[in-house]
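pasting for ref
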Amino acid sequence: MKKFIDKYHILFFLPLGIFLIASLFCMYEARFIKSLYVNHFAKQILWYVIGFFLLILLGKIKVQFLFQYSFSFYLLGNFLLFLVLFLGKDINGAKAWFDLKFFHFQPSEFMKIALLLYLAKNLREFNESKQSDFLFILKCLLITLIPSIFVFLEPDTGAILFYGLLLLSTLLLSKIKKRWFFLAFFLLTLFGGSFFYLYFLKQDFFIKIFGTSFFYRMDRLIHFHDGTSLQLENALTTIGNAGLFGHGIQKDLLYVPEFPTDFVFTLFLSIFGFIGGFVLLLSFFTMNCFFINKYFKVKEIEYKAFIHGFLFLFLFQQIQNILMNLGLLPIMGIPLPFLSYGGSNMIVYFLFIGIIFNMKEKEEYF
């Protein structure tokens, strides 16, 4: 355990302590906003307790075991994604959760770990073999495509984006020739142009191909800044009234749908103000530096690929959620790590971190 957590990890645990306090204040404030949020405070404590327990537990597991059996985890993840389509609970029009009575389990979150482990293992095998670039890229595409199809059917657009980020992070770390990236850029541009041509000019044909549900999801994303979103208008009003030091816990806060999850940053600013927001951003910056440093310290390509992919997810979630709250990016239902309410996302991040903590280095910290 001493080797698992050392003095350098203060750069992780100090920000995490700030996130814990901030999140609990937000969950307590949420009690006065809507009756649905009454139990969020107690449950958020539970998710943190479970997360810390898993962090300690992973310190006793050899991380190579996880990479060795990554294909089994990948198969299990896909099976759960398939199963949730039939047995999942419908929430806000999506079948993405198993209802376990005391806990809504979201398999697409846990698939992030399984997918990244398996992609990292394939990257190591590619670097150690004479496999062609084309076969490696094709294999990675297929590995990513299968769970992406399942989450598309749920539907969960955010998860598809996350899986794509993991694929991109793996390919960027590989030794494939640069021409493949130019080809990918050309194909994505061609596909994107055709996609938006159909969306804007051939909407009937677009709906026949992708369905009405997907069309309306795209419509909400593209026209997010048309002034028609009540939650965004109320969020911006709340942020504008926060002031330097916020208003503390208040019982008459302007209502924003999904306050404890998607708009927790807005809720945080209403309590702690812009000074609190600066401390929060500084905490995220400190934690990001910890993981970036860890990336450069480890030597094994599997380890590097795993941390690289994790950073892609972690940084994207921070940027997307905060800018979404400020009305600068579309509202996509992406939570803010360690602050937003939610068991699956919280536990998955602790699992990610437990695996990263357990990666041995060939040189000591400073």
